[in-house]
Amino acid sequence: MEKQFRIAILYICTGEYVVFWEAFYNSFEKYFLKKSSIEYFVFTDSPNIFGEEENNKIHKIYQKNLGWPGNTLFRFQMFNMIRGELGSFDFVFFLNANIVCMEEIKEEEFLPLETELLLVQHPGYYKTHIRKLPYERRRESSACIPRGKGKDYVYGAINGGRTEAFLRMTTELDKDIQKDFKKGIIAKWHDESHLNCYAWRYGNYRLLTPEYAYPEGWELPYKEKIRILDKKLKIKLDPEKIKELENRSMRKRLKRLFAKMPG
Asked: Which residues are catalytic?
C-alpha cells in the first residue's frame, strides 16, 4: 500500500544525549504515523548511531556539541542547514532527544491537516493563567510577548508542521535569535520563548494536549501517548553546568557561546 504522507523527523543527540536515540527510534518505528513514510535526520557528533547501517531512511548530519544552552538555542540554525533536503517532505517535526512513543499515534490525531503548524501544550503550564505564564517579557528581546498578552504556553520539545510553514518558522526564529544574541540577549527559556512568541503572533496551529508530552513520573489528567524521559536517570547532569546557569553573568555565558557558535 502506498504511504499517505512523507514525514521528516529532526532529532539532535550530541554528546551524552546519543544514549536516548535507540529507544526513540524503536518506539517511533513501532507506533508513530504508520500510514506514512518516515525519514530521520539526526544531528550528532557520535561516529555511529543505532540503525544507520540497516535503515537508509536514517540520515546522520555531523553537528558539533555546542553545550548549554547552545544546543537548544541554535537548533533552528541547524535545521536551516538542511532545508534543501527537507523540501520534498509533506511534514517536518522536531522532537527532543529524551522522548519515546508509548502507543500508536495516528495521522488524523497528530498531523495539522487543517492548519499549518503543530504545537503541544507545556505539561507544566496547561492550567496556568496568562499573567503567570513564563513568557519572555523584556521589550529588548525579539521573543517578547507584552504583559497581559499571550494565549497558549507551548513546549519547545515537540513542534512541526507542513514543510513550507515549518521552514518559514525556522528561518524567522533563527533570525530573531541571532539578532538577540548580537545584542547580548538570551531569551528567558531560549528557543522555547521564541517559539511561544511566534505562535502568539502567527496563530495558525493545531494545539495538542500534554498527552503528547507527558513527563516521566508525573501524574496528569491525561493519557500518556508520548513520554518525556527524565534525563537525569540516563545521563549524568554536570553540577558545574547547573552552577553556571544559576550564578554566571550573562557576559561570561555569551563569551563561551560565541566561541562555540556554528559557522
From this structure: 192
DSSP SS3 for 259: helix
**Rounded Cα–Cα distance for residues 12 and 95 (Å):** 8
Q: Homologous superfamily of 6-260 in CATH?
A: Spore Coat Polysaccharide Biosynthesis Protein SpsA; Chain A (3.90.550.10)
Describe the crossing of helices 190-202 and 163-182 by its angle, rounded to 10 degrees: 120
- Give residue-wise pLDDT tens across range 107-138: 999 999 999 999 999 999 999 999 999 999 99
Helix, strand, coil fractions of the chain, as percent rounded to 5? 40, 20, 40
Cell of 144: 517578547
Question: Cα(182)–Cα(190) distance, rounded to whole angstroms?
Answer: 14
Report residue 210 as a C-alpha cell: 500534554
> Considering only CA atoms, which of 81, 102, 86, 107 is closest in space to residue 39?
86
CA 107 to chain centre: 20
pLDDT tens sequence across 56-78: 999 999 999 998 889 999 999 99
Backbone angles phi, psi at 119, to 5 degrees: -135, 160
Domain ranges of the chain: 6-260
Q: Which residues contact 169 (CB under 8 A, 6 or more apart)?
A: 117, 161, 198, 202
